[in-house]
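Batch manifest, entry 17 of 40.
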Amino acid sequence: MKAAIIAGGLGKRLRPLTEDRPKPLIEV
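Output type: structure tokens
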């Protein structure tokens, strides 16, 4: 993993990626 997104909220803008995992675990 090269970067982590540290953010709160529901992550609606990242919806395809955040369906099955929380935002801090998304690979960028």
